[in-house]
Structure formats: structure tokens, C-alpha cells
Amino acid sequence: MILNVRINNFMVFSNDVEMSFEADMHTKKFMENVYSQNNFNVVKSAVIYGANNVGKTCVLEAIRFIKGIMRGEAFIPPSGDLFNIYTESNELALGITFMLDNDVYSFDFKYLVDRTSKEGIVTYESLKEVSIDKTKKQKEKLIYTRDINSDSKFINSTYLTKLMKEVPHESIFLYQVEPQNKDAKEIIDKYRDIFSRFTDSVETVRLTTLQLSKTIDYLKKDGVEAKLIKELVCSIDTDISDISYKEDDINLPVLEDIEDASIREKRSKELLSLVSVHNGKEVRSMLYDSRGTKEIIALAGYI
Asked: Which of 73, 86, 109, 234 has the most CB atoms at less than 10 Å from its CB?
């Protein structure tokens, strides 16, 4: 669960921008939208709104980039530009505070980007454990900090502190080392697991590129997820009374807009086996439903 996202010199943002998901407990009207744990109060859902070109999409791109860094992977936004084009600095500063297994962590990093190649290195990174006491005072406990221009330290591990000075900065420290020391390996594995499980829980989607595959997979299994998908789709598009996956032996047309010929026939049958019910009549969703309805059906699988 994301509690806070911090952005600086990333895409449209030239100065510090912070998006907090922590709930304002003075507002009692929407308390059903608040999740509370260990003195943290977090909104379950939030909406980013505003005029065109103010950075709404860039917030999501920042989350995608943070996710990639936390997985030791490279990620370049569709525009190819990471840094704000109106600043002279090539160094991005991003951070995220998140809750996992009722523990809260704060991870910040700086990423220096070559403006030509778009390649970069992690110049700074810091991981902390965060808590809030009953007086609402926030406390941070440092786990490690690594700075290319200053001292680096992994708390409670002189072995890992020494390694920090020896390994490159192409990605964050957790993915640059394979410790031979047993205790150090357990520490690295622990925080890799935390990062992996958290980032696995973060899904960002673009409506223009949504795939129906998630929805189809859930409808095939016909479990709890399928029931939730049906309820969501029918509540948004009231013209639909049911959505399901039904395979049969009839000859179905092949959808030519599927580029990969090797999977075209299989994917065509899967897509055409998606059936929606309008006014009591079953129809092939791919051939009958509007683009907006198909986007709703696809999004339901992600939700």
C-alpha cells in the first residue's frame, strides 16, 4: 500500500512535488474509505484530477519508474525523457513510503541521467523503517544509506557497509551484491523480498493499451474474482446484465488486428469467447460492445 510519493526534476516536475495518501482524520464524511493500521491512516482510493498538461500522467510515470528501480530494472517513460527539460540538472530525486505486512518503509533515491543515451546511475539511495507513536509523532529508523559523493552505511552490518564502496551504481545496492557472508545474505534477501512483494502489488495501467487477458483469465477460472468482475462491469455499464467466458466449437473469425501470427488464432478465439448479455441476449463482446465498454471490461481484470 502506497502512503506517499515524492518527485523532483522528473518529467514536468521541476520542483519538489509530494502526493500523500494519508487520510485527513478531521474529515469524517468518508471514513469508510480509510484503512487504519499502527497509527497510520491511509485512503483506500484516491483521484488525481486537473487541467491538461499539469502532470497527472507524470505522477503515474514516476510510480512506474520507482517500481522499476526497486526491482533492479530499467524503465524509460514513453516520451523517453526522465528529467525536466527546463532545468539544467540531469539528476532526478524520487521517493516512496509504503506499507507491507503492517510495517512501513521509506525509500528515496537519486538517479543521474545522460541526456543523450538516457542511461543513468543511482547516485544516492536510502531505506528507512517508519513508525508513528500514539502522540502522532513520526519516527524513522535508518536501514541503509548509500551516497556516491559521501559516506555510505548499512546499519548493523560492517560487511555490507564495506561492499557498498566496492560495487557499481548501475542499480540500487540490493541488486548489485551477492554476499558470501551468511548473515549479510539473509539481510539482502529480506529487503529484496520486501521490495519484490511490494512492487508486485503495484499495478499501473494505461487505458489506451489495456489488455483483456487478465479479465479473460479470471473469467475462465469462474471463481470469486470472476464474480467481482461481473458485478463491477454491470454496475458501470447498466446495459450489460452479465459477462462471461464461453468457448464453443463454432468457427470464429480471426481478428486481423492481432499482430503476432503465431498467437493470432488462439487469442482470436479467446477474445471472441468473451460474451456479454444485453437485454437478455448473448453477444460476442469483441464484435458488439463499444470501445468504452471493452475498456471497462479490461480494466475490471486489473481492479
From this structure: 109
